[in-house]
Amino acid sequence: MNDFISPKKKIPVGILGATGSVGQKFIELLTDHPWFEITALAASERSSNRLYKDAANWFSPTVLPDYIAKMSVQKCKPNLDCEIVFSGLDSNVAGDIETQFAQAGYIVVSNAKNHRMDEDVPLLVPEINSDHLQIIKKQDFGNGKIVTNPNCSTIGLVLALKPLVDNFGIEAVNVVTLQALSGAGYPGVASLDILDNVQPFINGEEEKIESEPLKIFGKYEEESIKNIDFKISAQCNRVAVTDGHLECVSVSLKDKVSESEIIKAWKEFSAEPQKLDLPSAPDNPIYYFKESNYPQPKLHKNLDKGMAVSIGGLRKCNIFDYKFNILSHNTIRGAAGGAILNAELMLAKGYLNK
Ligand code: NAP
Questions:
Q1: Closest residue (by CA) to atom 9 of ligand 1?
Q2: Is 245 assigned a catalytic role?
Q3: CA dist., res. 270 & res. 264, Å (int)
Q4: For residues 274 and 305, is the Cβ–Cβ distance under 8 A?
Q5: Which CATH number fits domain 152-329: 3.30.360.10, 3.90.1150.10, 3.90.1300.10, 3.30.2350.10?
Q6: CB-facing half-sphere around the CA of 133: CA atoms within 13 A
Q7: What is the pTM (predicted TM-score) of this model?
Q8: Rounded to 5 degrees, what angle do the CA atoms 98, 104, 109 make?
């Protein structure tokens, strides 16, 4: 039962890195958001003091809202007229800029990797570890706080693994990703490097997928997060798909279970964002398809507002116990949509009351 009452007045929010791949998705998802209203856009020196329509190369298939087109892009300095900043900043600069905003009293909801593994920063997936939000009381920014969401491949993986962790226990995971081009930012990979090609390496990606789930599934106790203990091996590939990361996963489980028990656990999975009826929460976090050639980026990336993970092809594995394929939208569930859901959860649970 949701006893949270939506805010009477929309909360002013800013977007750091508003011109980039994730920044544009923030604009798309926050336009007409019931609780938040965009009041500031910021990016690099190159873009600042220019109208958004001139600074950004808008490549979304939706029309750039007129009021956004006419907004002036500002520098990423903590003097923006807003309470929350959503960060889609390049990781080369995100760490320091996000710290400065938190120190100045802003709530920073970030996509960048820089603060994800800080011990007092939640690496939040609202369906999995909303209790980790408690760790922000250890941050010493005063009213300012930093909350992060995981790497875009990690998020699909952990949503698919959550019912398995809870019901059967996990011993080991192997994952091979086929990641979309929008995951590399804008303008991203040069066309001649990816057309008629696959890039079998993405710098720093394996390490994130191998470490982040252990924190996400960690236990919050004695005011700290104790990582879960299982091994993950990841290999990452860039493929010529616009949006939607496909991942081929193999798992060893602690309990010996049937395929139908796994499918039942996936189909029945629902969590706090669904109970709270958060605006960006998918109705169903997981969609299972019995078709062995599903899921596919073209068909399933936008399922349930692009906020769900699709799973298909569950079958026995000769080395691990089971293998299956998963798909999630990298700039929605894996970035902007995931971050907005984090902010909605914070608001609904009283973490944004000054
Ligand atoms: P992107 O398209 O390259 O955008 C980067 C943004 O950072 C641009 O707005 C850019 O502004 C700004 N920026 C660069 N240097 C800056 C500086 N010195 N000062 C202030 N702003 C600066 O990258 P992206 O794909 O949107 O990714 C943004 C962040 O989200 C990264 O940390 C990335 O790892 C993470 N992330 C991305 C995805 C995804 O699917 N793309 C998913 C999850 C997480 P200008 O246009 O003015 O240069």
A1: 17
A2: yes
A3: 12
A4: no
A5: 3.30.360.10
A6: 19
A7: 0.97
A8: 40
**Residues enclosing ligand 1, CB less than 6 A?**
17-23, 43-44, 46-47, 76, 88-91, 93-94, 111-113, 152, 182-183, 185-186, 330-331, 334-335
Distance 220 CA to ligand 1 centre (A): 31
Q: 20 alpha carbon to ligand 1 midpoint, in Å?
A: 5
* 236 is a catalytic site residue: no
The token duo for 153 is: 């491949």
- Predicted confidence pLDDT, tens digits, the chain (354 residues): 456 667 889 999 999 999 999 999 999 999 999 999 999 999 999 999 999 999 999 998 899 999 999 999 999 999 999 999 999 999 999 999 999 999 999 999 999 999 999 999 999 999 999 999 999 999 999 899 999 999 999 999 999 999 999 999 999 999 999 999 999 999 999 999 999 999 999 999 999 999 999 999 999 999 999 999 999 999 999 999 999 999 999 999 999 999 999 999 999 999 999 999 999 999 999 999 999 999 999 999 999 999 999 999 999 999 999 999 999 999 999 999 999 999 999 999 999 976
Report residue 95 as tokens.
């760490």
Domain spanning 11-150+336-348: CATH superfamily: NAD(P)-binding Rossmann-like Domain (3.40.50.720)
